Amino acid sequence: MEKHPLPFKPRTLPLAIAAVLLASQPATRVYAESSLSPDDQWSCKANPDGSGWQCSVEPVKPTVMKRASRPAAQVVTEPTGDKSNRQTPTVATSNSRANLRTTLDWVPKSQLSRKEQKALDQTTPWCTGDYSEPPRPGKHFKGDPDSAPIIAESDESSYDQDETATLTGNVSIRQGNRQIQSDIARVNRATHYAEFEGNVVFREPGTLLVGDYGDMLLDTGRATFENASYALHGAHARGSSKEIIRNEDSSLVLEDASYTTCRPGDESWLLTGKNVTLDHNTGYGTARDAVIRVEGLPIFYAPYLYFPIDSRRQSGFLYPSIAVDGESGMDLTLPYYWNIAPNYDATITPRIITKRGLLLENQFRYMNKSGEGEAGIAGLIGKDKLEKENPYYDQERWLANVRYQQRFSERWTAELDYADASDKNYIEDFGTSLNLSSTGPLNQKVGTQYLGGNTYNNWTFSLNAHQFKNMNQTADDPYNKLPQLVFSGNWQAGETLKVSYLADYTQFSRADDWRFVREVEHPDFDDPDIRQSVYDEGYGVKKAEGGRAYAQAGASYPMQTIWGFLTPEVKVRSVNYNLSNLVASEVVNDLQGAYGESVIGPDDFTKSPSTTAGSFSLDSGLYFERFTNLFGTDFTHTLEPRAKYLYVPYVENQEYNPTFDTAAMGFTYSSLWLDNRFSGYDRIGDANQLSLGVTTRLIEDDGFERMRFGIGQIVHFRDREVYIATNLGFEKVPIRDIEENHAAMDDRLRSELTDPTSPLASEFIYNFNRAMSVRQDFSWNTNENRLDNYGLYYRWKPEQRKTLNLGFRFRDQVDRYVQDEDGHNVLIDPTDPGKGFQTHGNNLKQTDLSFAWPIPMTTNWVGLGRWQYDLTNERNLESLAGVEYNSCCYQVRFFWRSWIETDDNIDHPDPKSGIFFQFILRGLGNITGSSGTEYLQAIQGYEIHEK
Q1: Which of 33, 100, 103, 438 stands 20 to 30 A from 681 (CA)?
Q2: What's this model's pTM, rounded to 2 decimal places?
């Protein structure tokens, strides 16, 4: 091959390169990097005798398309102190390109810029580095690279008579944000075909390809690279391949390839496949004959595997999960995601549970302009095959749900939320990935809501039918609300006068056998560990069903200034019932046993009880502020005294009102300012009281509240008479089956109603900084000189992977009865039942310690733990200890847990324990199922990262 030396200096763009670039973009004129003026251009013509070319510099003609500006020497500007050890080369040298095969743009954390280090600490603090493309010309190009001019550089170049240009020495050709470099390049003008040899490096945003040999069609961008390595910066992934084909749409097809999210040099896990496709356009990769290896050991094979390379979802198999359970055996799950349309998708999840059978779970999601929803169904194909300790052996097991939200207009919406299951143990036995709004109980609700009014008068109307599916074997069924109508609103009647109103009508009902009585041995099984729950229809006033109409209206006149406020308010509340399912004699006996014959008379029985009461309150407060400096910090110190007077007359015969959704609330500092000491609408608490309290705060200049302390007490001017007895509805339950000492509990309730003052309540919060705080809740009964409630909680979360929580809770409660293994109360003297039953202290006294903390002298290991201890009954409620290993490419959790179920017999608990293991391949997912992840959520501040 005859070569013709060119009459230019090596670092300018010679005629050969100009010819190549003209061939690659015939519709545009391509320009060289040289010392030309921006208004000049090269003009070259072939010599008539074929011996070479004649080139000269001429002014740019007006008709020529505006040329791209020549890149100036790039200067990377970073914030002060934000420096990088990396240089900013225009053309990478051969040696530096050779090193890319091993480094693949991986930069150790210590060499990242401060901005990059901060981002890494916030997202993946366990990573020792990150993929970071070095600065280069064109890196931040915006626009379509296909229409951008091509710029090339090389140390030497030549052109032969076969229209092939040869570039040698640090070759670099770039177009927009794409760049290809090599030691040698040959470009054919006629075919627009280019070949590259030696340390070939191809770059475009988020992609790095390094190979020994490459070729490219300059017209289309299609390229092939042999014996190549690659890195996908956004996916935090890399790998190698015998051959990589870059298609025109930038997707990559790899032959005999590997894929991993581990850093270069680390192959803790590796996916290999004969044919792998990585498509940035869809965000997914596919692999045929895929094998997943962990530390070189093959653990999974699939003839076809579909995996994400970014956060988008597309049709295909998702990562499998494998779990092993001592009761159910091996559990293999292989989900398939179906992207039906932009607004429809489905996830089909077959599960093989070796001891139970095949379970299929399907979830369908949809969206339109006015609404969105989902539907799901799950269940065993066939019947449950597990015989041992399984009351559902040879029965069908299933779970289904539907959720939908519809927007008819900006003001009018509707909602459907319905879930049902074959039995109460389905979720406990199988779990579910269906999107349930609640798992205990399941919601079965349909309703609509309309928002009306304007700025000065806004109102809301809602109509709901709400049923509940109880999923607790040892709890009563809740009331269903079929239907519930609510109309409420607020009216700004004047500049200061505010009027509020609410009307609620609800029809309450529930199943005939709704009340949990006890657990007994299942009659269909010989195994005494298989228990069956016994329910009955209830007794007395607790059997009540029917309609309740509640109405409330109030007017307030808030007066506020910068130094205080005064708010008088009047309110009227009324509740009326139309009840059914009541037996007069049962109700009277029930109420007399709970409240006494002097309170309840047989002639007072009614199926239409009603209660109406007005109330008046006067709420007031003052604001005092001063500036102070404590320990070198400026604070605004506030003192905020507050007083509220509340009067609600006593209305008798509220004992006949059922308690559909009502209970007495616990007493805390916030209780000082409430208008009713009961939740719900079934009781209107009488009151003639004055609440007194004071709050003081320390606030920094930026608004951060460093400290808050509040203390207060209620002064009662009259004994209270309304309360809810605790022993209602127990006539049909043998006294030996009741753990709670209801007689003692009611004695305490009645005693507290005559106390002249409430407990002294306080709250204290101190924020040492935005990561550390301590909180204390305190309630002292000054009448009995008794500590009623106390809570002390310490929280420290200095960074993402560190959290420490300490807590202590105390609540004074009356003694309970001691029970035997069968749940019967234990007599003091078995020969003399008249002496009563044995009792035991029942104060709630618990400690709670939990943490997630990096193990010293390590980077990737985190210790996990939680310990809940019942000081009163001297038992461990929960013990958890384990470790978690995090790296850029995988995560391992291993922990042991021992616990007691909340409904266990206190005196004869049945502790459970288990060992849980979880292995997660970052970029592929969790291959061992949840494996107890839900237990770790109790560690406050602990963040579960599984991506």
Answers
A1: 438
A2: 0.76
